[in-house]
Batch of 3 targets.
Target 1
Amino acid sequence: MNRSVFFISDGTAITAETFGHSLLTQFPEMEFRQIRLPFVDSPEKAEDALAMINRAAEEDGVEPLVFNTIVDRDVGSILDRGRGHVMDMFGTFLDPMEKILGSKSSPQVGQAHGMRDKDSYEDRMEATNYALTHDDGVTQRLDDAEVILVGVSRSGKTPTCLYMALHFGVKAANYPLTDEDLEKPRLPNFLRKHRKKLYGLTIDFNRLSAIREIRRPGSKYASLRQCRFEVESAEALLRAEGVAILSTTHASVEEIASRILVELGLQRELF
Amino acid sequence: MNRSVFFISDGTAITAETFGHSLLTQFPEMEFRQIRLPFVDSPEKAEDALAMINRAAEEDGVEPLVFNTIVDRDVGSILDRGRGHVMDMFGTFLDPMEKILGSKSSPQVGQAHGMRDKDSYEDRMEATNYALTHDDGVTQRLDDAEVILVGVSRSGKTPTCLYMALHFGVKAANYPLTDEDLEKPRLPNFLRKHRKKLYGLTIDFNRLSAIREIRRPGSKYASLRQCRFEVESAEALLRAEGVAILSTTHASVEEIASRILVELGLQRELF
């Protein structure tokens, strides 16, 4: 028996799903069927959602969980009439917040991921463009970079840079350490002069080999021997240069990006 | 008087901040000073956070709001001893969930943005690589694309593709409509044959001009006249081809990506 779980919002439902996810992972032995319903912003759409909830209750033989972040209470309360257990993620906290702040809330739909602040939006777009034009060592001009990630090919540099740009508006460049770099005792000068902005990424060499195999099966590039050489040399080089290193083997892009920004003192408000 | 707001978590605190943000926007007339404290995963770090909360209470002359998503209750409860109003975002919902599910929760730290599922992680990395290698019309081979965004230069295609890839593992390509394309009555054949995967992005021409001015000040490319020509021609062409169009003028990347995926029937579980 799998219980259905609905994430329902008048916006993207990204907040509802992200938060709901972390609650569900606290019940690791249970299986859930998860359904996201974004843009439920009218009574009609709420009625449609209600019908889906009731149908799931019927089919599953068990009542669904409903994570509701609809701001308009007249719309959101429609969900209460169904056969789901509704977690009202907004109302639950708005009531105490109104008391603490001594102020009535005024409903603002879909503001979690809306375009609240044009400057912040343009910062993110600018940073994304920066990440794309300073990816994979394409340029040695790194004066404008706020972070420069360094590591062997396929250690996770590009996605981390893009995440920092899209979510935090941070200008992140990256440089892949090649065999040639790894045979030298020092990092290239154009990196050394930005040492305070450098951050190393590493990865378990077995996993690296598996990732590279997908790209180039049977190649020297993907061989365990080559991956081990590169990872061990890169770690030694970065340590010798006093560059902090983080392993991406068991971490998500979000975690890696957040940790690096904290450690480099680049804390930004999330968009 | 600005009230301090803390987002505190044992993980990235991205969930706490995203959710807390949407609650704060319901009080649009108030100003807040927002502080994110990620990776608070020990009693010592919680004590440090507590000291920051108390200092803010002192400096602000008003008690801070504290959005707490620390999973370990022994660590999280340390925050309750301070001068902040703590919103316990986990505990508040875990208690009712335990009753509904008939199961005790077992604390799993930092799972909202952890690497839960290796396959999903690799899907996202693969999709990110796809977005990078199928950006800006660099290739006409689009058989593997799940979405192809079409629009004039700087209408928001690249960030939207990257967001779809990083968050949903969707393979998204994009193609910029050039003057040459806009003078023809039809889309190029390599796009027409993938019509079901096409989605148009448009933007208000005044805003487009402002965005392009930052890039190339005083250029024909950034002129109002050119931007208006491109936007109007692109909209006419896409309409004639029966391609759905979304305006990015007042929407965030998250909203645009979510709407397109819903409309193309590409609903994915968020990572």
Target 2
Amino acid sequence: MKQVISAVCILCGAEHEAVPGITTCVKCGGILDVKYDYKYIKSVLTKEKVASRERTMWRYLELLPVEGRQDGLRKLSVGCSPIYNAPALAEVIGIRSLTIKDDGINPTSSLKDRASAMAVVKAAEAGLSTIACSSTGNAASSLAGNCAAAGFHSYIFVPERAPKGKVAQLMMFGAKVFLVKGNYEDTFRISAEAIDRYGWYNRNAAINPYLVEGKKTVSLEIAEQLEYKMPDYLAISVGDGCTIAGVWKGLKDLYEIGFIDKLPKLISVQSEGCCPINRAVNEKSAIRPMEENTFADSIAVGVPRNPDKAILAITESAGIAVNVSDEEIMAAMRLLGRTCGVFAEPAGAAGTAGVKKAVELKLIPSDASVVSVVTGNGLKDTANAIKAAGEPVSITPDMECLCKRLNEGAI
Amino acid sequence: MKQVISAVCILCGAEHEAVPGITTCVKCGGILDVKYDYKYIKSVLTKEKVASRERTMWRYLELLPVEGRQDGLRKLSVGCSPIYNAPALAEVIGIRSLTIKDDGINPTSSLKDRASAMAVVKAAEAGLSTIACSSTGNAASSLAGNCAAAGFHSYIFVPERAPKGKVAQLMMFGAKVFLVKGNYEDTFRISAEAIDRYGWYNRNAAINPYLVEGKKTVSLEIAEQLEYKMPDYLAISVGDGCTIAGVWKGLKDLYEIGFIDKLPKLISVQSEGCCPINRAVNEKSAIRPMEENTFADSIAVGVPRNPDKAILAITESAGIAVNVSDEEIMAAMRLLGRTCGVFAEPAGAAGTAGVKKAVELKLIPSDASVVSVVTGNGLKDTANAIKAAGEPVSITPDMECLCKRLNEGAI
């Protein structure tokens, strides 16, 4: 990999050779970060070259830590999800410009496909064809889908609270699924032990430094779709911390190679009921565990596994950390649906809820431009969607009943 | 519209001016079909021009019955869904070549977005901004989503059996939803009466001749994605009959303008429990109503509203009509998930179940090439997905329990 120099520990700075199987720092246990040779990348990659390529996340090949094209493994069409200018929603929220990146439009309907597609390629480079992870749901279903498409096996650990939609995907993709009686922390721990014992490839994003590199492609795409004119802020929901770390890595990559000349500030959005990363940012304190009190299952992570990279991303960007209630998330789900035609799962709408909250709290100016990433499709969790959106009006099939309900204002 | 000549009744041949508000033939009540000036289209459209355009269904502008670009109304990014070569699945099924077009990857997760996006544009041309339809679910949710994005209103009638996922979408998109206590036929009838009374724009695909023109873009895309080398067969599930009619229209369009030199034969797939169109084709008889005895809700249409166009499409293509059981559909769901990483709703997998059945019955030769269209995402109906795929294995979060379950062969 000419484009990759090494994998650097973000805690102690130790450099490791970027071989496919690396996980955390052998010296201090810190999380590794892939270090690129931007000078080389600048010499081989142009915006025009990117524009001419296949419509998947692999169009940014020179910015990814992979050996070569490996087309045989890139089965699912991950990435290049739509982006929408959302003036009606911007008006409701009271902000000059709002753009929605709908990453629920991916093969398994979440942003996590970007990391899982990368996991398949890196596992193959490591000579393995069985991949395992623990997940609140989306990482799991994306891993299962990407493994199925590539002919790989997957072992998946999900907490028992995982929504039906996500579990249905796992089972349909033929994953070997363990529903763990416990919270995300319990689930993560047992997956780590099992991966150690059985030698599976590790697709836990906080442990495997390559997965953040897959996730960062969402930023590369946003930049390209906005013709490299970056917004003032970029909002994203935060659970484990890996996604916001990926978002920031992508932005910095583009800045380093001169594709963009401005770095947006990050808006880190967590749930009030589970916000250990935002609390650490706002209180400038160490991470302490929290309960997982939110219906937004994808970001209900009481003991985040990648707080260091996430906190670094938020602070480096001079960003803000804002918490939202479940009611505010439900309101954002309705707003996204009714003004944009975008159906987001709770965690997927949390970013947009955070933008609204940040405007209300005057944490960001009303003349700002913001991109908000929807990280997962609302179909993943229809029970909570119905809770947020309400039930339909029942009628018998006759005009009398219909007119009566209309006149009553039932609808 | 230079490209459109008229709207021709497929029963009596009467030509109507192709104004935006037309529905059925004023002379005989027959369904209309948009007639194009292929000579003109040939003179203005090239494959290169198509290739250079935006990645949505509107890239085929000259083949669509719209006045102009109307960018303001084309809010959602409909179309350009992925296509996958599926050698592993082809092997299981016992066919030389199988390609899966995953149209569940659309803004509201079904092929119906193609018709609903068209409905919004045609309603605007007709000077209306409220659109109504009856639907087994997907037409409804796509209409609701596309209306929300364009700032239009939608009134939707769904039968009470509609799956939760689809109803959740409707409510989230802010549609005014009537859950009709009755079957699809009852639902269709009450919607037609209400549309008449209230003057809403009619998005019932069998009544509105423009919607099939939206649906046909799936064929245009398949052809382009296969570099205009067409397969021997194209399989699709059939309910009302509009989608297969659209598929055939698109193929004929491309043939007429010389983009393809071969027309695939259609494989019309219905459920054994509800197959009025296939019965009429196979028995060369008139359409007779049937019960709606299938879990594949999207194709459970006992009284199809567009049998004429559908039957014409199947017979013109020298195609075949094959019925599948619910068990065969569930098996196809598992096969698509486990060999392709594609998660299909029951009706979405029916096409592929039909290919398998057609091979087994030797209705198509094993050296044939087939494209099968997945019409909707499995997340639309997770209850049935779980039924088809099974439940996960529960464990307590300790290695002892995990190893025990693994050794037991529980997984």
Target 3
Amino acid sequence: MVTPADLAIKDLGPCRHPSPVAEKLGEKATVYVGEADKVLFDDRLSAVLADASGARPPAFELAGPRNRVFWDPKEVRAGIVTCGGLCPGVNNVIRGLVLTMAQSYGVPEIFGFRYGYEGLVARFGHAPMRLDPRSVEEIHRMGGTVLGTSRGNQDPHQMVDTLEALGINVLFVVGGDGTIRGAMSLVRAIEERRLSIGVVGVPKTIDNDIKFIDRSFGFESAFAAAVDVIRSAHVEASGAKNGIGLVKLMGRHSGFIACAAALASADVDVVLIPEVHAELDGPCGLLAHLERRLARHGNAVIVVAEGAMQEHCTSSAEPMATDLSGNLKLKDIGLFLRDRINAHFRARGVEATLKYLDPSYHIRSVPASPSDSVYCWNMARNAVHAAMAGNTEMLIGRWHGRFVHVPMPMAVRMRKQVDPTDDLWMAVVEATGQPLSFC
Amino acid sequence: MVTPADLAIKDLGPCRHPSPVAEKLGEKATVYVGEADKVLFDDRLSAVLADASGARPPAFELAGPRNRVFWDPKEVRAGIVTCGGLCPGVNNVIRGLVLTMAQSYGVPEIFGFRYGYEGLVARFGHAPMRLDPRSVEEIHRMGGTVLGTSRGNQDPHQMVDTLEALGINVLFVVGGDGTIRGAMSLVRAIEERRLSIGVVGVPKTIDNDIKFIDRSFGFESAFAAAVDVIRSAHVEASGAKNGIGLVKLMGRHSGFIACAAALASADVDVVLIPEVHAELDGPCGLLAHLERRLARHGNAVIVVAEGAMQEHCTSSAEPMATDLSGNLKLKDIGLFLRDRINAHFRARGVEATLKYLDPSYHIRSVPASPSDSVYCWNMARNAVHAAMAGNTEMLIGRWHGRFVHVPMPMAVRMRKQVDPTDDLWMAVVEATGQPLSFC
Amino acid sequence: MVTPADLAIKDLGPCRHPSPVAEKLGEKATVYVGEADKVLFDDRLSAVLADASGARPPAFELAGPRNRVFWDPKEVRAGIVTCGGLCPGVNNVIRGLVLTMAQSYGVPEIFGFRYGYEGLVARFGHAPMRLDPRSVEEIHRMGGTVLGTSRGNQDPHQMVDTLEALGINVLFVVGGDGTIRGAMSLVRAIEERRLSIGVVGVPKTIDNDIKFIDRSFGFESAFAAAVDVIRSAHVEASGAKNGIGLVKLMGRHSGFIACAAALASADVDVVLIPEVHAELDGPCGLLAHLERRLARHGNAVIVVAEGAMQEHCTSSAEPMATDLSGNLKLKDIGLFLRDRINAHFRARGVEATLKYLDPSYHIRSVPASPSDSVYCWNMARNAVHAAMAGNTEMLIGRWHGRFVHVPMPMAVRMRKQVDPTDDLWMAVVEATGQPLSFC
Amino acid sequence: MVTPADLAIKDLGPCRHPSPVAEKLGEKATVYVGEADKVLFDDRLSAVLADASGARPPAFELAGPRNRVFWDPKEVRAGIVTCGGLCPGVNNVIRGLVLTMAQSYGVPEIFGFRYGYEGLVARFGHAPMRLDPRSVEEIHRMGGTVLGTSRGNQDPHQMVDTLEALGINVLFVVGGDGTIRGAMSLVRAIEERRLSIGVVGVPKTIDNDIKFIDRSFGFESAFAAAVDVIRSAHVEASGAKNGIGLVKLMGRHSGFIACAAALASADVDVVLIPEVHAELDGPCGLLAHLERRLARHGNAVIVVAEGAMQEHCTSSAEPMATDLSGNLKLKDIGLFLRDRINAHFRARGVEATLKYLDPSYHIRSVPASPSDSVYCWNMARNAVHAAMAGNTEMLIGRWHGRFVHVPMPMAVRMRKQVDPTDDLWMAVVEATGQPLSFC
């Protein structure tokens, strides 16, 4: 259950300064966001009627520029850090943060920390980069992050040491689940020292699996890149007798990329995602389904999310390891399926040709699509507006088509996943023609 | 003011048949949409609190498959017609309609009417095409519409004649504002004859200017194509001393494409849209602003929506003509600006080089992007689900991130426009650095 | 040494028929190719002067339409077969063969054999497809081959059985080195039965390693696709501290794709090809060079052709296996280098992050680029003109910018390779800055 | 007639210095180009036999690095100037010139002159840019020219003043026909002052119409961009009853882009080029042909080169004007045809829908394709090698697949055009199915 308190945003204090944005644009030019501008957590009619007790239903604070700001912009020294794996659009976000701070607010000093949270720990020796409008002007044309990145969190106290040493009072953190947890520890450490440093997040997840973000930045660019690879798998599968194209896509816990890429490409016959259990053997298993498909159509394209079917390739005897970000190290379901499918058809005496494609790094490194470029610009703008208003321990979310403020603890409370009883999976089943179970 | 009654969807009667979709997928597999599944018209907290009178706030019916359907699928003879200008994704919509009808419901006969509403009028002599899964399998790889299109409405009674003659009981209409009005006349004529024929719309507007559609299909593909053209304008402008790139984009009444393309490209200095008045002459006019920009930066890129600044290029003496769709014929603001800017700099003795790009047909004809492909699939699926449930005189909308049913009269009541005091225009102003007025 | 005799083209007899092409276009419209239209094998001045003995220097027969043809077009029954791995443009070639035969010559019957040479052997049970202009109209928009393909040769006598049974008198073979050898055996078998069946080749090699083909079709499309992948490797390498991007590209015996992709991308620091020996260990080895590069620049991108450095990953104890096409099965130099580089930096206590990309199937499956589309059209046209003139056991080549006829035995006599003392490798060395040996 | 003397390259004197390239790469590593390395002007066997008189046939000097160079690289002060209209790849050429000079030869100072020849004339006040490897590293990712450009020549004496003032001894000129003539005047002026300044050209012509350049840089990128536009025209034409897509492409005097784009797109029904006369009216005219085509197929796509059919839209009464580059100002054949076709069908009472696309600026501004990127790199490298060897008044050409040195007077002696009796036009006629005359 979500209560109104869960959605309350922390701030560093009242907004004492007139906003330079408001000064530039005039009082009437823009509707500044006020106290009552909140978005209902659940906007179905039934939800509101149920709550007709008179209690205020939970609602998110709307993102956007405020009439008054907490910080005197001339005294802001901002920092930006990018963490975790690459994702299309990170450079667009960096660019948007810098341009909005410099041009809309007149923030004089902006530092880019290098190689993720390592850049905030002195002993790694990564000197921060100075960022200004000129240095970020063209960076969105390339994928990746000009700041570099690394996985894993660092000691929050050492990170605060660096922030204090440089006089940083606003820090933007671009990262996923683990990075947000790291930012929450950092806020704890800041509060322990009674410092006034705002920490604002721009959520990054190529898997689109963070709650309260209708769509994460880079997600559309990623599945668009996947469509090209699926087309290649389809072409390879069509070119051989009993040709099978097997494509492994991102998706550790959530199958959004696999689903969206399959819907967009229209060339996929089977989609395997972590949220939907699938048998491998037996008459209701993938292998038997594949055999029937080849017999009828002569070829097949399978898309598997990296987190799917893990129960088939792990053994209870062997506990799963974790990586630097604390993520469980998954078994490689792509190689596993490749080998099992090949073995199956060899055993059945059927000549089949499987081509396996694993385009992960290629997809993560593409530049942001035009649509993601717009989206990143708005994420970045709103993150700056939120930070200037003195908010902290929050991130920019997207709820029912509007940018909102999401408390960090809410964002990491649970993961967004494909609901196998809901619309997206239904669309996939209708589009691929795959049965709900392989029977 | 919108009342609950405004959002009520017409249907042809109660749903008497079990749904084949439900039979295939099982009762529990999917959450079928029920009576209470509506989406609040306004999901801001303040709106709901204000309406705490006990009255039900207005809410849209959720789109999606129903447990029971109105039509016996085996008796459905469906028609599809595409109207108006080209827009990326029309072929994807046709494909999605045909595949969902044939594969999810087992509809046996589907006709594609040729060249818009002309195809429904016998005297034009356009024989309809038979459509089945095989004939539409690959059509989404190309832009345009395999059915052809035309502008303008036709006599509704002659259209009903054709529907009756062919025994069509479900008609899907893909088109914009004018097309929807045509469909409403058609529904009148059907009702006059007391026929049971459902008319369901898939709203098409490359300008993204239909209300209750967060984002129209093809819109993202269109502004993505525009970004390439703007980059060319930027390259041309940078290559010449006092280089000016002028790009005319679609947008008769609404500047959404101009705004989105400018945000996505990051190369634009001035955006001109119908919703925002701009002076041409005088110290606060575009020409003076342009001169200042060239003096400081040496080049400039201008994006102008086709409906912008019409007051500058029309005279009250000469009343505006209308085209076959009943749209006012706009003056060509692109050529007008090209000539006025050239004349201005000539008069001022400043050597400037203006390159004018008008990519309209190129943009309209691109294939749907991966993201639009997913979106078109969902628009089409939900249109079939709505039609099978017996609904009529409605279209598929998208409200706060969910697919909903929108009564046709609501959809054409007013046009969606860029609000110059709201977030999108604010984002453009921050991104381009252009002043609110050219002063 | 090449003698004029080596370049003589076999034909099936004198050209008895007026050409329908000539009839359509008129005598003067086109310069028909005559006896004296040959292209010098070596067009350097020194070569011709050296041969001023009066002997005719070796010269290739020019490709193109003849005034008279050997076959009566109305009696031609043609076959097309595509063999070996996928390569961009195969569908364009099929399309060009069919359209030129049907439209320029009026050939009435064209068969497409399925799945390579298997399709010519009855026991595999692959029925041939009928091909006509309508069925091939759109196939060039997709990569791959609509006929399917397989590796390896088949028994020539069983293949002739099929040709005789179907009454085929002209066979087009699209394939590489091994396929051409197969076609030569087929010609032997045809001659033994004293049949009049022409066999004309369209050489296909994504590696661009067939002699007398300045540039093979699909090669430009392939290295263009590789450029995208290299950019991703560059982005990944730049995003991490001591980031290394390692890309394995095609090139079993010849490094043309690796060289061209490196030159085109401008993001590559080291290129490894089969023709140039490279040490791995020691002060003049790749590993030491890489370490120096990381110390100076912080990241590196390596492109390795699949056939490079095989001496490092094979042992004399273990003889190399061969695949169905008779090609030696190479060791996977990509995985080998990945592991050796990782081990090296681990042993040196240097934290480095290597990302490995192996895009082979993706690259092979892309559609032909516009430039390759033109090229494929010309290869196909000229193959038809050559076949209609009664030539056999020959293929279409490209020599010094002109299409020529190449005897099959000449084409397989040796392989085209990058000459480490010549211009291409020099251009790579200048572009990457890599030393001639890693010292 | 071309004589050996015509192909002799001017140089500034003997090569007195060892080449740093040779020093770096070692004597044996690369085959340095020697005196005898020339390419026969005509490599057809018949040509050589005819010349068996013992006379040396004309031959081009091969491009490439020399063992010894004329200039002491440390004393070279180089300049680069780009002139005329934009063309894909100019930035790649600039980058290649700078990198090869700086990295292969160690040239210490390189100036980029701004806005074409204007940048060499003091009174325009365009300060030159300093160029070094860092400043050009990323410029190839964008189209256009970072130096800017302008049309037209300037007074050669004023240009030499600037070269002398800056101490430039090597000047690279990137431009077309008119620019090369300007460079020849510049060489005259240099010679009059008895200065030792080398002038080396990199020929730029998006129309591919300079002699002795098999293929000009940017040409492939240009027609590839045109293919996209033609596809849009095809989609528009297919979407309307009697739909006509009309695309105007570059090609003032030569139809190479129109031909190549038509061959590559496979969607074109009529190609109109300057080299082939076409009637407009009458039974053998374009209009009658178009009417027959619509009656049979329902739609048509026409590609017209800008210089085609000029005789139809000019009158002898009105003499043609010239632009700054001295080019005749062509009448707009695109608008002319659009209006004449529309008028024709209106007069005939046939409802037809014509969509006109004029993508010129868009095509000129695209970045170089991967294949052009390789080509530009080689053009630039070889220009530097030629300049360092002391050559002057020459440009880099491409003859029979090899880079060669072409004397400037030879290059402008005549224009390269499509030969209507030769292979390219034949390929177009076969591909489009258009008749040789519209009868």
